[in-house]
């Protein structure tokens, strides 16, 4: 009678439908069925667990009930005693109206409420309850689903609505092919929905969840498999370096030996670019593993073959730095067409959003004419009026900030589909790589170049007397030895939001929940459905670049040191000037936001202090500290946090305990809410992955990937799988919509 696309307004009463829409954005039958119980209550009682202040949910029987007229106010009051056979508990309603007819002795019901005390006896005042006869409708159920309240609709109203919908739901169309259901031992979709909302056992719940998670993984993997299939059909120009060209000249002057990993990856890239099918490769490598050289060699291959290469960086600071360091590494090879430049040389051009019009115009011309063999820029490169003469290779640095669609936009600028290399220093667990970058092949640089000194990390509780001052003294000691320091803060100014370039890690998982803490106290079945949904304490003020800068300048320990600031809101030239001065050693201490998080490479910097380190994610801290210990000097990273009693600092301890980026990224993934790890730019995936746990569901994801390949290889356009085709299309649409919204 109903399908999953039926609007809820056709199914439920107006009040309920409106609540679902406004409180949870639930508008269709399918949305409602996707609103899973947060847990399941067994009908066994736990009245024994009642202590003052605890929140209990318990099945109990009404033992006695009396109403009496109150002296102080009008109306009658209902007092009852409920029991689970071993323990009794008083319940009280100050208005008996609506309850006295229901709570008759002998009635069994599910009660929920916060335990208080009255006259030295424990009681539940105004508990929510639902008669078991209603809940069970005569069926004996071993599990009662408990939903998160929806506006002021209590969990049991949600239960009733879900049941109503389930009762009238037609067999829902199946997206997973029959043989896959069999092979993976998965239940059909309709049974899974029932298994989630009206289970007989936790075993059934688990099987139902597994089926729904699988479906999600499967749809995603089919979309990726289709993408890969399309990509393998594309044809492009093979790009082969010319003997005696730029690459040879560059290799000859390289001041260091490539690591064997760099050589291997270089060979892989060369082989793939030499094919007439576009390369799609993800290069992951620890912070400092030397990805830039690898990418540059591939870019030189592109130029040698007569084409251009574009390097896309996530921030202006990083784009400018790449421009500087690549120009420096190339020397006269980057002065093509200029007096004194190498004959075989090319031009390296920078293009960012905030460039003055004149230089911007010049850059655009160089790009269009092909004079610029290597183009480095921010997302400004993606804009429509940038056109290339012959874009052969696109390199995306620090991919976690770029989405699939952005890659596509750049690819669209080439006459022939370009080869694509994506680099990331955030180690990506295998399953995430399969999920987010499932359309790419992966290479990994696992060794660091020889001669890297280790980074030591310590946690500094600010409330320990003298520790913070000792931290600044350590900074001064490093500077006295000719080294430089970073001080990282989560905010720019005291009244500011965090820097736009800063991604603050939300340490308090309840924060996202407070907004919908409407607990439904006004219904008959009132009572918040979960006692943990309490107000988060007001956030304490976080260290800001301006304040810390002022403090440091005034700090006698740092007297005479050159302390400067850097953040995302400075004008581009200012940022650039500060970074140049820091790179040149003219600044001793750089107080900045996380604009320096990725890729910034100043080998002389040996110490980093991170203020309010507990605001940052594990992987982010790992990235940050990768800025020190780069030049053969041992690195020191001090993670300052407010001290005991504040947010847990296990995260900081974890960062201090290991420098293994892969291990840290697993910790990170586990601590963040699912999907967050995919980063803000992976919005599409995030908003769609409702059930799948990217880390735990490894086996499931692998199975789904295998099955998806099989389905797509037999039926590339899914014409024989209409339901699957519809889900895949919906997912791709949602991703694109999210991309457009973001602009
Ligand atoms: P990341 O992988 O973090 O982007 P970079 O490419 O910035 O690392 O490299 C970090 C530093 O190591 C740079 O200063 C770079 O010149 C240097 N480097 C790269 N490869 C080697 C190598 N094989 N031997 C020595 N130093 C290297
Ligand atoms: Mg880098």
TrEMBL record:
SUPFAM superfamilies assigned: Nucleic acid-binding proteins, P-loop containing nucleoside triphosphate hydrolases
Residue span of region Disordered: 491-541
Superkingdom assignment: Bacteria
Signal sequence, renumbered to the chain: none
Classification via CDD domains: DEXHc_RecG, RecG_wedge_OBF
Biased composition (Acidic residues): 494-506, 516-536
Keyword set, alphabetical order: ATP-binding, DNA damage, DNA repair, DNA-binding, Helicase, Hydrolase, Nucleotide-binding
Residue stretches making up the Helicase C-terminal domain: 499-675
Gene3D superfamilies named among the record's database cross-references: Nucleic acid-binding proteins, P-loop containing nucleotide triphosphate hydrolases
GO biological process: DNA repair
Matches recorded under PROSITE patterns: HELICASE_ATP_BIND_1, HELICASE_CTER
Keyword Coiled coil annotated: no
GO molecular function term, any single one: ATP binding
Domain (Helicase ATP-binding): residue spans on this chain: 272-445
PANTHER family: ATP-DEPENDENT DNA HELICASE HOMOLOG RECG, CHLOROPLASTIC (PTHR47964:SF1)
The name this protein goes by in its record: ATP-dependent DNA helicase RecG
Lineage per the UniProt record: Bacteria, Bacillati, Actinomycetota, Actinomycetes, Micrococcales
Gene that this polypeptide is encoded by: recG
